[in-house]
Every structure is written in structure tokens, then in C-alpha cells.
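job 3f2a | input accepted
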Amino acid sequence: MGPVARDNTPDMLAFFKALANESRLRIVGLIASREHTGRELAELLDLKEPTVSHHLAVLDRLGLLTTRAEGTTHWHALAPERLHAFSQSLSASAEGAAPPPPKVTLEEKVLDAFITADGTLATIPASRRKRAVILAWLVRGFAEDRTYTEAEINEALKRRHPDCATLRRELVGHGMMDRHDGVYQRQPESQWTLA
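job 3f2a | predicted structure (195 res):
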């Protein structure tokens, strides 16, 4: 068994929380280009030096700062390698994330909602779009290469729903079944008029 991957969520939360502050984000932008003293940052951002010191301390705790002393003056710069490490960590988290759930189509939603576990139709949908899905599901139970008597059509539809007359009329009305002299035949999908 391989090593257990470390959960870096707390580190990432601290990182984004720190950078969610406008002043800290501006400080990062300034020290990314060149070193600055706390006094310079205070003047550039129109902040008090203690406020800037607080923001620098937050960034320092995250390891985002490098500080160089020159006498009593401290020069602050961005630690690019630490920023890169956060970027890598974020990429690793994204790669290890669970894949998004598959998209459910309208057809799947309608069939789940209207077809019971025993394969019967709970109710005939009132919505035209949903009814079209149910009619397509019903007609696919009939073979295209054979004819059916009205009694055969009724028997097959009654196994799905008691109102076989309505379903039969809908199938014919939408061009899904052709009726001629009491003989029915399933039509190709190109002839269906479900819109």
C-alpha cells in the first residue's frame, strides 16, 4: 500500500483567506516586482506602518515573504518558490478531485419519473416534451419490420398503462405508428412529429 496523500486543504484555505484581503493582495503585487520596506509599502498603499506590519506578518506565516535586514531597515520581497508550491498543490488537488457526475438527459429524467420499477407507466405526462419521451419509449417496443393488429397494439400498450386508446391515438397522431385498414406499423424516427 502506497503512502497516504496529505490533505492540503487547511493550507490552501489559509492561502486564499490571506489573499482575499485587498491590502495584502496589493502588497503581494508590489513585492512581486521588487523589494520594499514596510515604510515604502505604507506610503504606496496609504496605510499606517503597523497595519502594513500586520499584513506582512500574515504573508510571512504562509512563507510568501523573504525578508532581508539592512541595518535597522527590513526589505521584503515575494518568495516565488512558495507561490509556485501553492500552485502545484492546487493542481494536485484538482487532479485528485472526483470527476463531475455524468449529465442526466431529459429522456433519463422523464423515464425515471414516469416509469415504475415493474416497467409500467405511472401516468401519462401532461407536458408535451415529457409525453414525447414516453411515446418514443413506447413505440420502441414495436418492431419496424412487421405489422400489428389493433388488438395486438392494445394488448402491448395495456401492459404499460390502462388507457391504451389514448396512447394508440397519440402514436398514430405523431406519425410514430401508421394505421391503414386496422393494421399498424411502426414508422422510422425521421417521420415522427413530436415537436
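job 3f2a | Confidence is low (pLDDT under 50) at residues 1-6.
job 3f2a | closed
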